[in-house]
Structures are given as structure tokens and as C-alpha cells.
Design the sequence.
């Protein structure tokens, strides 16, 4: 047996989309809060230096808004990510915890400081002297950005370990720090300031004093313009730090309109900030709210799903496949690949939660065995229904030729020739079972006809064997 867990099957949209939806909302909340922390620190320094109390009032109002928008929503979606990823990708989360548990503990310490800091900024405004208020803003900004510094290393490890020595020597520093760490940190810093500027428009638009509203919105516009342009430029650096498999996915598996769509979102975001800069008096809360939702749906969601997609076939550290199988030896962590065992004994015999009736494939259980294989090896990335992400049936063009499907599966998966797909060393009977199930997704009758044929063959073969044994010698 190998150490696999039960598979969480969500028939509506798939487990991956459940995780993605929660994570995207969390990124909007968390990145806005971190960006606001850095922005507040800088704005507080400027406001105290030039004696602009209206900027301090904006910090107080924006902080109060963040208590609900970022910290309440973030505190709900944060545990939501933990719960959903634990059942959707238990070995992926386990890989991260075994490497970075103390990093996460450190991040939580700074998160507590960040939460206390935003409360102090909001409720001590006007009640403490300027130096104390400024120190609170600086500590808030530092604590917020430190949480980003810590999490970025873990996110980068999910793409690939920072240094190749991690595979042989282990050590969290080898896994944490790499070229992708710094590129992603720079890119996310720019993006979080962009989100801070967009969301800040909701708060700034509520100022009744037209002159104060104009000045605050112009500050937000400049922050947004600079950060958006910086993010576009930093994207090239980020792409240069990706592994070859990620670049293959970007070039071959993303929709044809993805790049133009992202360029359009970038242009619209810049246009929003330029319009805010030129016409700040015409900005209303409804418009700023629509822009925030647009950024979430058109910018964040595609960006986060792309980041998840380009990690394929891995989910963590270039050694845990998206279907939870350990794909390579990691001597530095005492980890051994499970592929040789799967090749020798088969997936059904080694999966600890496979029903006993399915461990040996025959004509009577082809469909059930195939469905179990699809659930455990495919459903983390492919929906088994017509809804959700990458429905499995659509990849085979309605083909119901079971031998042809089985041959394709063994050529594409068993050999590892498809760079962005896990290597799945299916035995002949397992490939036939999975092919039968895939055929049933397009034409249940055709698949059942194949099952009936194989059942008849299985019934005839023992009879022939019995006749041979009873024949005179």
C-alpha cells in the first residue's frame, strides 16, 4: 500500500474550483490589507510631515473599512483554504507543512501584530500624539509586509524549490529562497498596491468635502498607475524564473485569448486610474465597487487559476503530483518515489481505500474500477461531469473505442511523455477499465456494450479451460 488518502469528489464544479474560488476571494482580501498596510505607513509619514490631517482621516476610514473587507472576510476564507486544500490535496498540504511549519507559525505571529495594528490605527486616531500614531502605522506596515515575505517563499516552493540542493540535502532555506521567490515578491508587491488603490476608491469616494476627495483620489490614482505599470514590467522577470514545464503549459494549454484578455484588463485598470486622476470629482462609490469586482473576476481569478495551472503536473515542490502520488525521490527529506511500486503492482492494488472488489479487474467490474481510477487519478484536475474545470469527456472527442482509448492512455500517461500530466503507470487491465469509464461519459450504451462483451468473454474462457481439463489424454 502507498500513503494515499480518500479523494474528495465535488460533482458540481470540482474540488479544484472550490479551492480556487475561496483562494481568489482570500487573495483580494489579504493582498489589499498588506498593500494598505504599506500604503498607510507611507501616507502617515507624509501626512505628519506636511501636516495634512485629511490623509490621516482617510487612513482611519480605510482602516475601518478593512476591518470588515479584509480582516473579517480574510479570517473566514483563510481557514476555508486550509479546510478545502486539506481534503482536496492532503499530501500537497502535508509537503508544505513538513517543510515550512515554523515559517507559518512565524507568519501568524506577524499577522496578529497586523490585526492589532489596524485596530489601534482606527480606534486610537486622534487620541494619541503624532509620534505614537506614526509608530503604530510603521509597525502595522512592517508587520503586514512581513506576512507577505514569509508566504511568498511557500508559494514559490509550490512552483519549485528555491535551490536544487533541497532535493538532496533538504533544509527549509534551500526550499524557501530562489529566483522565483524574489520575482514573485516583486510582482505581488506591485499587484497588492494596485488592489489597494482600487479598493481605496470605495472609501475615498465617500468624502463629502470635494477638495479632500480630489486630493485623496489623486494620491490613490498615482499609486495605482505606478504599481500597475511596475507589475506589467515585472511580469517578464517572473516568467523568466518559471520551470520549463510551466512555460509549456503557458504556451500550449492556456486559452488562445488569455494573453489578449490579460492585456485588456491591464489597459482598463490603467484607464481607470488615469480617469480617476483627471476626473476625481466624478468618482462615486458604486463605480469604485464595480471596478473592485471587475478586478476580482477579470484579473484575480484568471491570474490565480493560471498560477495553479502552470504548476502541473505537480502540486508542491516538483515532487508531489496533483493526484497526490509521490513522483520522485527526495533524499534530503527521506522521501521515495511511488512510481516504481505502482508500475510493478498497479494502482488498484496499492491504493489503501480501493474496495476489495475492485483490486482485481475483470469484465464484471470494468466500469466501477474505471470510475475509481478516474476519481483518484484524474478528478483533481478534470471534472467527471459536464460542469466544472476541464471536463474529462471533452478531451476525447466522443470516442468510445475502448481499445483505442486504452492505448492512448498508456502512451500519454504511462510513459510520462505528456509534460503537464502526471505519469500514471497503468497496467493493461487498469487502462482498459479507465478507458471504459471514459467511453461511458460520452456514450453509456457503447461502454455497457463493451462491458457485456468482456463479461461474455470471461464466461467463455473458464468453460474452454474446463473442457480442456476434462478431455481424454
Sequence:
Amino acid at each position: 500500500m502507498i500513503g494515499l488518502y480518500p479523494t474528495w469528489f465535488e460533482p458540481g464544479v470540482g474540488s479544484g474550483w472550490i479551492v480556487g474560488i475561496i483562494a481568489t476571494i482570500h487573495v483580494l482580501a489579504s493582498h489589499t490589507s498588506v498593500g494598505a498596510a504599506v500604503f498607510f505607513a507611507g501616507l502617515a509619514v507624509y501626512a505628519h510631515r506636511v501636516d495634512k490631517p485629511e490623509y490621516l482621516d482617510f487612513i482611519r476610514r480605510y482602516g475601518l473599512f478593512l476591518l470588515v473587507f479584509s480582516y473579517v472576510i480574510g479570517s473566514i476564507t483563510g481557514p476555508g483554504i486550509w479546510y478545502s486544500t486539506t481534503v482536496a490535496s492532503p499530501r500537497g498540504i502535508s509537503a508544505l507543512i513538513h517543510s515550512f511549519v515554523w515559517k507559518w507559525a512565524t507568519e501568524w505571529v506577524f499577522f496578529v501584530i497586523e490585526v492589532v495594528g489596524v485596530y489601534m490605527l482606527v480606534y486610537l486616531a486622534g487620541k494619541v500624539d503624532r509620534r505614537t500614531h506614526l509608530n503604530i502605522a510603521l509597525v502595522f506596515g512592517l508587520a503586514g509586509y512581513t506576512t507577505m515575505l514569509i508566504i511568498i517563499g511557500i508559494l514559490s516552493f509550490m512552483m519549485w524549490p528555491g535551490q536544487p540542493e533541497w532535493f538532496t540535502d533538504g533544509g527549509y532555506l534551500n526550499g524557501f529562497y530562489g529566483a522565483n521567490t524574489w520575482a514573485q515578491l516583486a510582482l505581488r508587491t506591485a499587484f497588492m498596491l494596485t488592489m489597494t488603490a482600487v479598493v481605496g476608491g470605495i472609501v475615498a469616494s465617500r468624502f463629502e468635502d470635494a477638495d479632500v476627495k480630489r486630493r485623496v483620489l489623486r494620491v490613490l490614482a498615482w499609486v495605482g498607475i505606478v504599481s500597475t505599470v511596475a507589475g506589467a514590467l515585472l511580469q517578464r522577470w517572473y516568467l523568466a524564473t518559471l520551470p520549463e514545464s510551466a512555460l509549456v503549459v503557458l504556451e500550449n494549454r492556456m486559452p488562445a485569448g488569455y494573453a489578449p484578455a490579460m492585456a485588456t484588463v491591464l489597459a482598463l485598470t490603467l484607464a481607470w486610474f488615469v480617469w480617476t486622476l483627471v476626473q476625481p470629482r466624478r468618482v462615486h462609490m458604486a463605480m469604485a465597487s464595480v471596478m473592485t469586482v471587475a478586478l476580482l473576476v477579470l484579473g484575480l481569478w484568471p491570474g490565480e487559476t493560471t498560477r495553479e495551472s502552470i504548476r502541473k503536473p505537480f502540486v508542491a515542490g516538483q515532487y508531489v503530483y496533483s493526484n497526490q502520488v509521490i513522483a520522485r525521490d527526495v533524499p534530503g527529506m527521506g522521501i521515495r518515489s511511488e512510481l516504481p511500486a505502482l508500475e510493478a503492482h498497479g494502482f488498484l492494488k496499492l491504493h489503501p481505500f480501493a474496495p476489495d472488489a475492485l483490486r482485481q479487474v475483470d469484465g464484471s467490474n470494468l466500469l466501477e474500477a474505471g470510475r475509481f481510477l478516474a476519481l483518484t487519478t484524474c478528478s483533481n484536475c478534470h471534472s467527471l461531469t459536464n460542469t466544472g474545470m476541464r471536463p474529462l469527456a471533452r478531451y476525447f472527442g466522443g470516442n468510445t473505442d475502448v481499445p483505442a482509448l486504452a492505448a492512448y492512455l498508456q502512451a500519454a500517461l504511462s510513459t510520462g511523455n505528456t509534460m503537464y500530466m502526471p505519469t500514471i503507470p497503468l497496467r493493461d487491465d487498469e487502462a482498459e477499465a479507465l478507458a471504459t469509464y471514459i467511453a461511458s461519459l460520452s456514450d453509456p450504451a457503447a461502454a455497457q456494450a463493451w462491458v457485456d462483451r468482456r463479461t461474455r468473454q470471461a464466461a467463455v474462457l473458464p468453460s474452454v479451460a474446463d473442457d480442456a481439463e476434462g478431455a481424454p489424454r
Remarks:
- Confidence is low (pLDDT under 50) at residues 463-469.
- The radius of gyration is 27 Å.
